[in-house]
Design goal:
The protein is mainly alpha-helical. It has eleven helices and three strands. Strand 2 and strand 3 form a beta hairpin. The mean pLDDT is 90.
């Protein structure tokens, strides 16, 4: 098993109780094959870490998106704490290499299975919480998932602009925004589309893009800016 000191350096936290860190890495398959060495798996820590992650990113989203509805905040949080996102973050620190696995799970590629990686990351956060409290666990979670948070909530998450604009207009005016392509320019191999979004007859924003969809997304983004809605 790889030295756990290296893992602590990667996550930026030195555990006071190293047994908690070790427990976070014990897969149920290892317990099944080695009950005398490891009587329990990381599943309880996984449960705790899931709750901690949800709280950490719910708080961050609440503070970052002051105009977003409950539904939009819930969708953003689910993207950040979903299994595929957690597995990707775990892969960046090679967490799979630290897992205690049973021989069968090891042989079947268990160190790279998304479910194992996501569960171990949740357990790691749960262990950090028990070892040093909510603030320390939050720092670890934010550090490990900072790039995912930026990707899933930043300007490149363009598909959210249209949904945010629609939620806002429906909540405040009970009207759905409408999009139209008002201009097309450039040669066939490099088309540029200009989209406009309107609320009834009032124009809210215009945007350009290499596709109609991209232009509509930019129009929605410009509309959000014009309405003073914080989305960064």
């Amino acid at each position: 098993m790889t030295d756990l000191a290296a893992l602590q350096t990667l996550i930026g936290l030195n555990f006071k109780d190293a047994s908690l860190l070790e427990l976070s890495l014990i897969h149920s398959s290892y317990v099944n094959e080695n009950p005398d060495l490891a009587p329990i798996s990381n599943e309880r820590l996984e449960f705790l870490g899931d709750a901690v992650l949800g709280f950490v990113f719910a708080t961050r989203l609440y503070n970052s998106f002051g105009q977003s509805s409950e539904g939009e905040l819930t969708r953003l949080r689910s993207r950040i704490v979903r299994g595929s996102t957690l597995a990707r973050a775990a892969t960046r620190i090679d967490l799979g290499e630290y897992l205690y696995l049973g021989k069968g799970e090891e042989a079947s590629g268990g160190r790279s299975k998304p479910a194992n990686l996501a569960g171990a990351l949740e357990a790691l956060i749960g262990a950090a919480y028990l070892d040093q409290g909510a603030a320390a666990a939050g720092e670890v979670a934010t550090r490990l998932l900072s790039s995912d948070f930026a990707e899933l909530t930043g300007p490149k998450a363009g598909m959210d602009y249209k949904s945010r604009l629609q939620e806002f207009t429906q909540a405040n005016q009970q009207v759905t925004p409408r999009y139209s392509i008002v201009d097309t320019s450039g040669p066939d191999h490099a088309r540029r589309f200009t989209a406009e979004v309107r609320l009834n007859v009032k124009p809210l924003g215009r945007g350009q893009g290499r596709s109609k969809k991209e232009a509509e997304i930019e129009a929605a983004r410009q509309a959000l800016i014009g309405l003073g809605i914080n989305f960064t």
